[in-house]
Structure formats: C-alpha cells, structure tokens
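Sharing a chain and its predicted structure for anyone who wants a worked example. Both blocks are below, sequence first, tokens second.
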Amino acid sequence: MPSLLIDVLLLSVFAIQHSLMATPAFKKWITAFISPVIERSTYVLFSSLALLLMYWKWQPITAIVWKADNATIAVIITGVFFFGWLVALLSTFMINHFDLFDLKQIFDNLKDKIVPSSKFQTNYLYKIVRHPIMLGYIIAFWATPVMTVGHLLFAVTTTLYIVVAVKYLEEKDLRKSIGKEYEDYENKVPMLIPFTKKG
C-alpha cells in the first residue's frame, strides 16, 4: 500500500506540473519574471525534473498481471513497444523537433533574429491522428510482455491523463489560438485512434 500511494503521488506531481505550466494563465504569469523566449524551455526543464523525480522515487510493485510465455509473442510485443517510441520520436520531427523543445527559439534569440510564430502543420502522421506523439506513448506504455501491477498503474494513469489533458485542456487552447483551421482539422482527423471519426 505505501508503494501504491507513493507512485500515485509521483504521477500526480507530474500531471499537475505538466498541465498547470501549459495553461495560458500560467504562461502569462511566468513571463512577467522570465523572457518569453525561454518560457517553453522552462516548461520542458520542469517537466524533465518531474520525470526524474518519478524515475528516482518510483516504487516497483512486482506482482504479475499478465506474462507472455510464448517467446515469439514476447518478441512481437517488444517490437510493438519500440514501434510506439519510434512513432513518438518521428512525430516530433514532423512538426518541428527543435521548436517543440524551444531550442530554435533560443538559438534565434542569441543571433538577434526575430522569432516567427509557429505555423500550424499537419504532416505525415498528423494526417492520421491529431496527436501522434501521445499515441506513440500510449502504445509504448501498454506494449510489454510482462505486465506488473506497478506497470499497469503507470499505464492506466498516464493513458487517462493523456486523454483528459489532450481533450479538455490542450485542444481547448489549440482551438482558441488557431481558430477555425483547427476546428476543421478536428472534424477531419481523429484525436488518438487512427481511422475513426472520433479519437
């Protein structure tokens, strides 16, 4: 029970930090103290620290929920695991990997270049689902030949967080900032589940 409570607390810290710092209100508040150029990098930094805290203090709960005893099936599931991470990684380059982590904005600022507004893009996997990075994460979190209670807790919690945060927070902000172009995109492309009308 203590392990379960600690793990839930660690997941909650990450979820709160990740959602709170992404809100327009928080961005407006923090840019009163730091340059807007490094706002995104600050967000990435604190997200990384929250993840490091989780890696450091996570309490394994090793009771097995399911296990792939067949070696071939285990290899296939492991392949799906790596496929999920590949989808997530490639998706960052399909928008702008360096914009995503705010590296381009910082380099442009150091060169005294005017940082242009990011253009809304729907390249490659973004034509299949609106959030392929999150889809990649979900695939990777669930694809394991050995599912322990601790891993299941992580997979369930993070999947629920992704669905709720994307649907009710991120997409709300995207509709507000991009407008009709994003609303049209929503009507054409599913959120997370490929080849469906509604993800």
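Comments welcome. The chain has a mean pLDDT of 88.
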